[in-house]
Design brief:
Blueprint: E1 2-7, H1 9-16, E2 20-24, E3 32-44, E4 51-59
Antiparallel strand pairs: 1-4, 2-3, 3-4
């Protein structure tokens, strides 16, 4: 799955520096799902301080293996 995050340089650096992400779900069980980030790329808007991080996510199992 491909996902993009938009934010400031500080916000994007928080996301880009993590190899794993935990997403909380509203209705699904389990309520927390862990994903591993692959091939992150950061794009900057030339005239604003807005950045976009795009990456591929792969869900991991409880043992840390990708599904």
């Amino acid at each position: 799955m491909k996902i993009c995050f938009h934010g400031t340089a500080d916000e994007i650096s928080l996301v880009a520096g993590r190899p794993l992400m935990v997403l909380l779900t509203a209705r699904d069980l389990p309520r927390m799902r862990v994903f591993e980030l692959y091939h992150p790329r950061i794009h900057a808007h030339p005239s604003h301080e807005h950045y976009r991080l795009c990456a591929r996510l792969s869900e991991t199992t409880d043992e840390g293996r990708t599904v």
